[in-house]
Every structure is written in C-alpha cells, then in structure tokens.
Amino acid sequence: MSLLKVENVSKRFGELVAVDNVSMTVEPGELRAVIGPNGAGKTTFFNLISGFLTQTSGRIIFDGDDISNQLPARRVWRGIARTFQITEVFPELTTRENLRIAVEVAAGYRTKTWLSGNADGEIKARVTDLLDMSGLVEKADRLVGELSHGDQRATEIMMALALKPRLLLLDEPTAGMGDQETYDITQLIRKLHKDQKLSIVLIEHDMRVVFHLADRIMVLAEGAMLAEGTPQEIARNEAVQEAYLGKAA
Q: Under CATH, which number does the domain 1-79+166-249 receive?
C-alpha cells in the first residue's frame, strides 16, 4: 500500500488557482523532491498535505485513510510531520530543551505538570538519542538562537523527528545556507532516510541537493504538475530545463 496518495488536488484563492489538479504518490521509504520556480505552488501543496490549508477539490489519502478534512494536529498524530521555510524553533531555549518539548508532545505529556521518574528518564533518553543522531551533542546546552542557521535547521528537523513521523515533509531545508551547512543538512537528511527508514518529501531550490538525494522528482509550474520522474529523467526533460533548470543555470 502506498503511504501517501494525493489525488487530483486543487486549491483556489478566489480567482487564483495556486494548485491545479495535482496528483502524487509516495511509497514507504521513498525520498521524493518537489521543485519548481518561485510561485509554482510548492508550499501551498505542502500546506494541503499537512492540513494547514483545505483543498478546494480532490482528496488526500494517508496509509489507506482519507485525511482530506483532518486538522493538522490529527495528521501529526497519524504520522505526518513537517518543517517550514522559516525555521520554527524556540531561540531562547537550549537545543536540549527544544528537543525535550517535542519529545514530551510526542509522548502525550504536554498537559501534565509532573512526570514520574520513569517517564522523565525515558524522555531524557529519547532526547539524548536525537542529539546523537543529529550531531548536536556538543551544542546541546547552548541557546538555539546563538547557533548557526544550519544548526538551527538541524534542531528543527530533529524536533519533527521527535514526533515519530512516518512521513517527513521538509520545506526548503537548505535555504540560505553556505556550502558546508548545505552539505551537513544533506547528510543529515540522507542519514534519517537510510537509518530511520523514513519516507521524506522535500521542497528544495538547490539542484545539487535534489539530484543527490531524491529517488523521484515532481516539477510544479504555475500550480500544475509539469513533469515527474527519476533525477535522470528530469535532467533530460526539455520542458523542465526551460521552465526551471535552465533559469537556475
């Protein structure tokens, strides 16, 4: 069974068609990229999958169930987590504290004012695992607001991972980064995909990242799907080169 099926989804804002009859299937364990020029509808498409927007038409199927009208929190509970274009962290808290908040939410402790010793130990162990996985151990007790953009993004990704998703949506994970930070985040995404067996869909402008990571690529242009295929097929596609890759070059 496919993990995610987006079936003929459209989103209109008045006369503006932001997403136009787009379909996509994500298989378990797949790493897929969504690319396209600015204004192509990529983030709107992510917002539809994660429930921050409701589609005008079409439907979204996750793990065999129609989630088209479910709220974002319900979709997180079902196993969909995401990051955003602008990094969403708590800059006044440490890396460890940021991760602990996410772990407590995932464990259902967000409304409790007191935790048993066993529960607290389990949370601390999970936070330690996330720190080890992300390479942020040495920065665990630094304020996130003092970290580099790359480390802040890594923290946000690990906060999403703390929710134990089956599908992770990454919205421009390397935006605004230099070469070394881009490499580090790319390696982290690859590690999560391989070691955690995560299904991942990412929006990305850096074609080096896309072609290095993705199993399959979907190209959006003016809200509609322009092409879909393997990195090799997309690289050879003349319509894609004209609409996006050629402009990037």
A: 3.40.50.300
